[in-house]
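Repro case for the chain-ordering regression, as requested:
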Amino acid sequence: MTPVIICGADLNQPDFDYTMQELANLAEACDMEVKNTVIQKLERPVSASYVGRGKAEEIKTQGKIHDAKILIVNDELTPMQIRNLGDLTDMKIIDRTALILEIFASRARSKEAKLQVQIAQLRISLPRLHTDNDKVKLDQQTGGGGGSFNSRGGGETKLEKDRRVIGKRISILKKELKDIEEKQNVTRKQRDASGLRSVALVGYTNAGKSTTMNGLLRVCGKDDDKQVFEKDMLFATLDTSVRRLHFKDNKDFLISDTVGFVSHLPHQLVQAFKSTLSEAAKADLLVQVIDVSDPNYCDMIKTTETTLKEIGVENIPMIYAFNKADLTEAPYPEILGNQITYSAKDPASIEKIVELIKENIFKDDRIVTFKIPFSEGRYLDELNVRGTVLETTYEEDGTVISANVSPELHSRLSRFEMH
Ligand SMILES: Nc1nc2c(ncn2[C@@H]2O[C@H](COP(=O)(O)OP(=O)(O)OP(=O)(O)O)[C@@H](O)[C@H]2O)c(=O)[nH]1
Ligand SMILES: [Mg+2]
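-- result from build under test --
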């Protein structure tokens, strides 16, 4: 484990202590050992160096005492602050943004996640490139001359060149990502066409979303459904997984497990992960999984809600799922309105959460009687697949069918409705 010092400017934010605790957890997730925490109370961060000179001296001393060469900072710093604070403390500066990115980079397994992280890292590195006045003569570098398309006059500064190279790399990666996303869009369209309701598990990282998903798959999945990856670490999940849950009453629905949140998730990362997160944006219902055994769970709920807003997920009904109740005194499983206290590891809890989800997503369904002409048989198939058929009789001019249907299916088939 690498020894580090962490530091934060206390601007009197109500959640300051929580964000510092979170920062320590993030550092640990990056294989770092927090040797000391240095805090400075300020009205606003010092624009040139984040903390004042005196504090920087103190940090430098702490670094020497603990043999720590890295300083982790609780906010996103400007390139100038990084440089100056580095000079003043004689330490390598890693801000919150870079730290989170580092964890994402170490966790990314799929091609898509890797590309998303790389794009975010390059975007962040752009403004952080060192200003360097050394002129690099491009034509000298490339052997010069005649046929070069790159006629940039006398040359460009190293900074300009670095920016250009990075810009180009970003576009190449974005193109690769787009190809992957397009393939996924096809699968998504097929899913949409199935007309199944979709539910997304969202929430703070390590709350137990993947464990809940696996519990659901155990109880209502098919045997060949793959379990998702669950582990006691921050950001175990970086890819969205979607599975279908099956029920005897035909009320199947889709469930998706998504990437977890942390406060001040870097903007560039949120941008890069937008498509991964879009599963939540399209859901009919969100299940916010909360680790109720964590003393900071109220802050974690706020963090989740702020992040959802940031990615444009608003006005979707939500169930609050207070998980890990086995680690608390609270009785479980227990439903209260749109809240459930449960444990993702307890099968009885999983049954209850299914009950609550179904109650919510199917609550606007209606029993409607349709008469479908024999020539329109495909609508019968649709009713059988997407609705719950209660009764079927045959008349001379068509099939009379009573079914429990969603508002959407009802309006699509409204011309066949019997009054
Ligand atoms: N005791 C207990 N532990 C749980 C429960 N649910 C999940 N856990 C543990 O909490 C840890 C995190 O679980 P995950 O399901 O991976 O959490 P997640 O929300 O998917 O986390 P990210 O993918 O990192 O966002 C794992 O070690 C789980 O075994 C529970 O009900 N009780
Ligand atoms: Mg997970």
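Ordering looks correct now. The chain is about 45% helix and 20% strand.
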